[in-house]
Amino acid sequence: MRHILVFAKTPYAKTPYDQWLAGTGIVPVIVTASEYAAGYSHLPHVRAFDAYDTNQLVEKTALRLAREFAVEAVFARAEADIVRAAQLRELLGLPGQHAASALAFRDKVVMKDHLVGGAVEVPAYRRLDSAYSALDFVAEHRYPVVIKPVSESGSLGAVIVREETELDAYLADPWRGVSEIEVFVPGQMYHVDGLVAGGEVVFVHPFRYLNDCLSFRDNDWVANLPLTPQDPSYDRLVKAARAVLAELPTPSQTAFHAEFWITPDDRLVFCEIASRTGGGMISAMVRQAFGLDLDKEWLYAECGLPSTLGTPTYRPAGALCIPPRNGVLERLPTAGPGAEQPECVREVALTGTTGQQFNGGVKSGLFLAGYVVDGDTEEDVAANLERVAGWFSDNTRWRPADSSGGTT
């Protein structure tokens, strides 16, 4: 029996590795977070950990299991696991992404160091060593600037600084880890998602954000909408993504999620790229729109299994992520009189329960409710995304955390 080690920081329903590998002769050895352990409990080899992202017993156990089962490959789809999986492959001499490549796709400064001066414009940037670095950068480039952690995802910890008082507020309570500072880029944000297998880009498609990646700061929703090949930005974004992949130490097998701006003066500017599938409901949207499961195809590529990709067929679909509000969730919109789900909804993911207290949005990829919707055209999908967001708001009830009744 062959084995693969999987860092599984996802619920089983989203990544049923045993079902994906059924009939291949490969058994997944699972290392997961405690909150997801129950979903994988039917599998023969599962280890779960509290404080999964920072618990170094994860690495120790993964190394022991990899040696015990003589695993042939290591798979990891979560941002928190990219570097630890790469280090394990390198230590064991296994194929796949190694540490230098993982760092280039994880550390935003190393990433831009690879790309600056290349085919795609990169905003001026600098690693933030101290307050002096921030002051020096602002003196050279002026406000507004963006300060963000070098190794987080989903806009976690990102701050737009427009004036000195906002810089002072940041410096008084800075991000605890390593950060970078870069010039603020105005414009519409897009993302390009795809798959590399056998060293070739075998799937690639651009999408537009509705609202933006910082909408969760206002407890507002963010959505994703595919571009049609006729869209004037389609070819530009695909070309930019391919150029970025060519300039980075891209592994032979990987999914990717790249973000770009197109500015009001029509410049295409790089934001960042990750060697993984997109967060939120992006993978589910791709599955609905193209009949393609990026995570499964990526797993197959890592395992050296034949692709089941075929020729994707497209039908318009979009993804919607709704963050929680501040307070206690009293009611979710579920099936019942007055709360019938709009017929355009094709997939739902609810991450909270009634009676649970929330403190608003945390990051763009974390949500209280996620939906995939369809429509006859992209315009229909965009309208349906707003419609579902409104329906959710109308049929959800909150109360303040220090109250026993009422709504917000």
Describe the structure.
With 408 residues, the chain is an alpha+beta fold. It contains twelve helices and 19 strands. It has helices at 17-20, 37-40, 57-68, 82-92, 99-106, 108-115, 131-141, 164-172, 234-247, 282-290, 294-303, 378-394, and strands at residues 2-8, 26-33, 46-49, 74-76, 125-128, 145-149, 159-161, 179-183, 188-197, 200-210, 222-226, 254-262, 268-274, 317-322, 326-331, 345-350, 357-359, 369-374, 397-399. The strands form four sheets. The protein has an eight-stranded antiparallel beta sheet, with helices on both faces. The chain has a four-stranded parallel beta sheet with strand order 3-2-1-4, with helices on both faces. Strands 5-8-6-7 form a four-stranded antiparallel beta sheet, with helices on both faces. Helix 4 runs antiparallel to helix 5 (99-106) and helix 5 packs across helix 6. The chain starts with a strand and ends in a 9-residue tail after the last strand.
What distinguishing features does this structure have?
408 residues; alpha+beta; four-stranded parallel sheet; 12 helices; globular
